[in-house]
Amino acid sequence: MNASALAFSPRRVGAMMLRHWYLLRSSWPRLFELIYWPAVQMFMWGFLQLGVARYPGALAATVSTFLAAFLLWDILFRGQIGYSMSFLEEMWSRNMPNLMISPLRATEFVLALVIMSMVRLSIGLVPVTMLAIVFFGFNLWALGIALAAFFANLLFTSWSVGMFCSGLVLRHGLGAESLAWSLMFFFLPLTCVYYPVSTLPEWIQPLAWALPPTAVFEGMRALLIEHVFRADLMLWALALNLVWLAAGATSFLWLLGAAKRSGSLLQIGE
């Protein structure tokens, strides 16, 4: 190898930069992610500030719900990540073509991912709730039957989003992988995890109520602050989740079919 090849080359640096620029420019999920995180954080903390300022007399009660809100949010987020991680493991190992030509049906594949989502969630959730009891004196399990309703509705939503994200990755390749990690955070400001729905601008409140987790978090606050279990909110969340699950499953099957037709299933990559 001659000396010129070993020398620093701005052209090679520029070529690598150009390669990654083309990759970024050709992938809208990558571009979207650059704006996504700052916007979500800004809206979440802004609405939180408005929510706390609106109820100064009930500040202590409001703050007491934050830990419960975090744990319930973690169920929603970890449920989706548990589903998506199991799916992405197949993508990373380039095993999806093998699975799709095997006798395994798409519905069986989805069911296996759903079960693994619950397994992954249980492994992470149980120790965290025990730590919450030890360090903060908050027992999530003491919510009883209400927790079962919260848990089920949050899991249904997480699986719906997981199916949709998995379909996008199948159709658009690993360039859409970041959506599996970040799409759930779109719901963070809109589902009012840490503040009431009334904190949102009036024009956006109908959109918030169309998201099943919103009813769960409103129900959580009603239970902890007003000591009332809102069965009506849980039924509303369940009805929405039936629609969301159907939409998630339909989108996954449609995107899987599109991936097969376009041949992208055999060209897993960026």
Share of helix, binned: over 70%
| Tally of domains | 1
Shape: globular
Cα distance, first to last residue? 32 Å
Strand content is under 5%
Can you tell me about this structure?
It is a single chain. With 270 residues, the chain is mainly alpha-helical. It has one domain. Helices cover 76% and strands 0% of the residues. It has twelve helices and no strands. The radius of gyration is 22 Å and the shape is globular. The mean pLDDT is 81.
Describe how the helices and strands are arranged.
Blueprint (H helix, E strand, L loop, with lengths): L2 H4 L3 H16 L2 H27 L4 H34 L3 H5 L5 H31 L8 H28 L4 H6 L4 H4 L14 H5 L2 H14 L5 H32 L8
Helix pairs in contact: 4-6, 4-7, 4-11, 7-11, 7-12, 11-12
Compact overview of the structure:
With 270 residues, this protein is mainly α. The chain has twelve helices and no strands.
Feature tags:
mainly alpha, 12 helices, 270 residues
